Amino acid sequence: MGHSLALQLALACAFPTLALASPDQNCPSAGSESVQLAGIEARLELRLEDGRLLRLAGFDPASSTPSTPDGEDQAREALTQLLAGHPLTITKLSAAPDRWGRLAVLAFIGDDQPGGVAAAAIASGLGRYLPEPAAHACRAILTTAEDTSRAQKLGLWADPYYAVLAASDLAGFAERAGTLVVAEGRVASVKTSPYRSQLIFAGERNGSRGSQLLSATLLPRTIKILEAHGVHVSSLTGQLLRIRGLLDLRFGPEIELLSPDDLDVLGPVIAPALAAGSK
Fold it and tell me: Is the domain covering 164-275 a CATH 2.40.50.140 domain?
């Protein structure tokens, strides 16, 4: 399992050890409000009898794909069965609905259930972990659930469309423009400027400008969070990373990392000097 830069930055040889309380200590394990479920919408939102529409925070539901054209229906049926006959409680994570009228929540069908329904749904392969501030406290629980379902090829992980993309998989990137993807690769170099930094992943260059290499962009606000935890972007050179976010193909495959929660360092960690071949 990977180490979240935001949550578990204690990486020997490459990063300084940080004495941070685990955010999962603050991940709710039970809801604070009892609700009555009226139904489940196509994108796995929960419709309550009082009319409210709820979105499970930290949860990106499975979509239909060319390989699984009824994927949304399958996921909806599976979540319906998961919730059937159980009392439902929620903890609201947003004060106001989003532009689609949804409230972000953690939902629970029992007590002592860290991560709640989102974790159970992800563990069943009904969706992926979605990095977002509302779900930050439960990140490790949700990513562990994802790792487990991926290893067992449950639900969406049995569909090749949802495979974790290698940094060199240009054909895979071409099919997924504008979608949320998960990709893995080793950072070959880091480009920095006052306005942004780019992680350039190792891979084959197609064309003199090397525009086909996967890159990840970090804006100053994300960089500041990393630096506040003792991690400098330049230290990521040589590291094997898993990143996730919306894929932009306008200038080659590129993913903007909106927060440190979009980024995991996968072991073993390689010190930058060793990765560069220094003795």
Answer: yes
* pLDDT, tens digit (0-9, with 9 covering 90-100), for 134-173: 999 999 999 999 999 999 999 999 999 999 999 989 899 9
Cβ(68)–Cβ(37) below 8 Å = no
Q: What is the dihedral of CA 239, 256, 168, 251, to 10 degrees?
A: -130
The reply to whether the predicted model has a pTM over 0.85 is: no
CATH 2.40.50.140 domain extents, the chain: 164-275
Contacts by 202-209, CB closer than 8 A, 24 or more apart: 202/167, 202/168, 203/167, 203/168, 204/168, 206/170
Burial of residue 198, with CB atoms counted within 10 A of its CB: 0-12 exposed, 13-18 middle, 19 or more buried: middle
Q: Is the peptide bond before 160 cis (omega within 30 degrees of 0)?
A: no
